[in-house]
Design brief:
Elements: E1 4-7, E2 12-15, H1 24-27, E3 35-40, H2 52-59, E4 67-72, H3 83-92, E5 96-100, H4 106-119, E6 124-128, H5 130-134, H6 136-139, E7 147-149, H7 156-164, E8 177-180, E9 185-187, H8 209-214, E10 226-229, E11 232-233, H9 244-248, E12 253-254, H10 257-271, E13 275-278, H11 287-300, E14 306-308, H12 320-329, E15 333-339, H13 343-348, H14 358-367, E16 371-378, H15 385-398, E17 402-407, H16 415-422, H17 452-466, H18 471-481, H19 484-499, H20 503-508, H21 513-526, H22 536-552
Parallel strand pairs: 3-4, 3-5, 5-6, 6-7, 10-13, 13-14, 15-16, 16-17
Antiparallel strand pairs: 1-2, 2-9, 7-8, 8-9, 11-12
The chain binds cobalamin (B12) and iron/sulfur cluster.
Cobalamin is lined by residues 45, 48-50, 52-53, 56, 98-100, 102-103, 126, 128-131, 134, 149, 152-154, 157, 219, 228, 230, 242-244, 247-248, 277, 279, 281, 310-311, 406, 409, 411, 435-436.
Length: 553
């Protein structure tokens, strides 16, 4: 399973050692797929994420041939183990079930597939998304998974559906697919379509965008009707904590400007959208392209239309002309992501960013009338209190209008995750618990007793003192992002941790080294041969299941 042989001619590689399981015969028999169930597992934060991958899959297959139904377990707040989910799935009786997953909800996603197999052992299952891609070696052998899609699948999904129907399917033709061959597991080359205009825009209705927006989907933008767009794909950088380049590749691919303009017009006139969030990893990488896009948008003169780049942009990939054009096109704020103020940490991150340029560029952006918000990571491996103080120093020096101070999350499959596993600082298979509840899966040794809530609050207070003119903006954002109750809770926590610093790890660190061993042992009880460490949400699902079995017995 671990040794990889690259066949240079076919550009396919084979993972040896994984035995084809008994369902292999089934996989090579033709299947007439009529009904497709796409399950969005519980665990996503609906104020941040929508089932966008399904919007793409749905609009890019021949809809006259398939009935596609999206089961949104996040909206319905239900687990795979819930009876209502099982009933709904059984009623629909799909021929194929797909699931998409980020790391924290990956066990729940796998459970959805297991449930589908329990209901109908003949059903074909597949999994895709960020976690399935960056951790494919571990997921591909998981119970309930027939096929795995690595990276993009907008176009290859329909090729896959066609192959399933063939007497002698040629799965080698399906880009991004990992499947069980006769002898071993095959991982095809990835689906990285050069001409992005061949891909149709996502079907926003099928993923209930309007419902999401009405219920708070508006990451860091005012409560306007908003929609995500994906304009450029790929990122040439190599930041050690990030899975993006593996998902969408290193070269940047772009939609043509006329394609984008039609898309924007559709959102504005037909959907009433007034805020467009550009989801790209590196929208301004090609400055010239970003400028062309802005100019085309300015020419449209769409009153009240605003833009955001919620993932942040690389500061060195822009100049005063670009910032000015962005302002004219409808940006009000630019997110930038230095991630740290520490020279030591920036090197360890492989961020390839010269920290010295940061204050100058922040000033340059502010000079054209844009607010600047910064993303920073706290508690990166190897960090000590001095590194966090250097981060604070950078924040104050730059006079950011706002900052997001996020806990470091080791993401399975990323370079830093692999490094921590090989140094035995993390057990293989450890999953982040949740991206929204402030819990950590890892804490550097030197920061075990560090009072993080106090540091964060102090930093915000110092920012306000440092730049009183910015105070109303700073406070308004704080109260928009965090409910007063949450701020009050944080203040209480600060005092609590000051008195009992050791309790901090117990409170916010889900898998402290002391209980990692227990977690592994526990997970092995739950499922034999499993290589995952189960987050609490999954344990909740397991106990639900156990209760049910007890009742039935
Ligand atoms: C946009 C984005 C955000 C936005 C979301 C905004 C929004 N309005 O939706 C914002 C900025 C809010 C955000 C926040 C965060 N994000 Co983010 N984000 C992304 C980004 C750049 C794109 C995701 C996206 O929607 N892409 C478009 C969709 C259509 O693509 P897709 O999901 O990959 O789907 C395609 C394929 O994967 C495949 N596919 C997917 N599912 C399925 C299923 C089947 C059955 C099949 C066949 C195919 C298939 O086909 C699809 C079409 O090609 C990715 C990086 C990336 N390049 O993907 C990170 C990423 C998803 N984010 C990540 C993280 C960690 C975060 C944060 C924790 C960062 C932080 N520290 O705060 C927060 C979490 C927020 C929360 N509480 O939930 C990680 C997740 C890693 C993981 N393994 O879980 C990623 C991969 C980046 C990284 N750092 O490595 N994020
Ligand atoms: S963090 Fe940003 S710049 Fe770095 S690799 Fe990921 S997407 Fe690229």
């Amino acid at each position: 399973m671990n040794s990889v042989c690259v066949d240079k001619n076919s550009r396919k590689f084979t993972l040896f050692g994984l035995k084809p399981d008994c369902s292999e015969e089934r996989l090579w028999r033709p299947v007439r797929v009529k009904k497709i169930a796409l399950i969005w597992p519980k665990g996503y934060d609906p104020t941040y994420s929508i089932p966008l991958p399904y919007g793409y899959l749905k609009s890019n297959i021949d809809e006259s041939r398939y009935e596609v139904r999206i089961f949104d377990n996040t909206i319905l707040n239900r687990l795979a183990a819930d009876e209502l989910f099982k009933q709904d799935l059984q009623e629909f009786n799909p021929d194929l079930v797909g699931v998409s997953t980020w790391s924290p909800m990956s066990i729940e996603a796998l459970d959805c597939l297991k449930v589908a197999k329990e209901l109908n052992p003949e059903v074909i299952t597949c999994i895709g998304g960020a976690h399935a891609t960056s951790y494919h070696e571990k997921i591909v052998g998981a119970k309930g998974v027939d096929f795995l899609f690595r990276g993009e699948a907008d176009l290859s999904f329909s090729v896959f559906l066609e192959q399933l129907e063939k007497q002698d399917p040629d799965f080698f033709n399906v880009k991004g697919l990992i499947f069980r061959g006769k002898e071993s597991v095959i991982a095809n080359d990835l689906d990285r379509e050069e001409d992005l205009d061949k891909i149709k825009i996502p079907d926003y209705d099928s993923i209930q965008l309007d419902y999401y927006v009405r219920n708070g989907y508006r990451w860091n933008c005012p409560p306007k009707i908003n929609a995500p767009v994906w304009i450029t794909r790929g990122c040439p950088y190599r930041c050690g904590y990030c899975a993006a380049p593996e998902l969408n590749g290193k070269p940047i691919r772009t939609h043509s400007i006329p394609y984008m303009i039609e898309w924007i017009k559709y959102l504005y006139f037909q959907r009433g959208v007034r805020w467009v969030n550009i989801l790209d990893d590196n929208f301004t990488y090609h400055k010239k392209y970003a400028k062309e896009f802005c100019r085309a948008v300015i020419d449209l003169r769409l009153k009240g239309l605003r833009f955001g780049t919620p993932n942040g942009i690389r500061m060195e990939r822009g100049d005063k002309e670009l910032w000015t054009l962005m302002k004219q096109a409808g940006w009000q704020t630019l997110m930038v992501a230095p991630e740290t103020g520490s020279e030591k940490t920036i090197k360890r991150m492989d961020k390839d960013l010269d920290l010295k340029i940061v204050p100058r560029i922040v000033k340059e952006i502010q000079e054209v009338g844009l607010k600047v918000q910064g993303f920073l990571i706290l508690g990166y491996p190897g960090e000590s209190k001095e590194d966090l103080l250097a981060t604070r120093e950078l924040i104050l020096k730059c006079a950011f209008n706002f900052v997001f101070l996020a806990s470091f999350q080791p993401l399975p499959g990323t370079p830093i995750y692999k490094e921590l596993v090989s140094n035995k600082e993390l057990p293989e298979g450890l999953l982040p618990h949740s991206y929204s509840d402030g819990t950590r899966a890892y804490m550097p040794d030197a920061l075990k007793k560090f009072n993080f809530p106090k540091f964060i609050l102090q930093t915000h207070l110092l920012m306000m003192i440092n730049d009183p003119k910015n105070l109303p903006y700073h406070l308004s954002l704080m109260f928009k992002l965090f409910a007063p109750r949450q701020i009050f809770k944080k203040v209480i926590l600060i005092f609590f941790y000051s008195l009992f610093p050791k309790r901090q790890a117990g409170e916010t660190l889900i898998f402290s080294p002391a209980n990692q061993q227990n977690q592994v042992a526990q997970s092995q009880d739950i499922e034999e041969n499993s290589s995952f460490i189960y987050p609490p949400m999954h344990q909740q699902a397991q106990s639900l299941q156990a209760e049910k079995t007890k009742e039935e017995a």
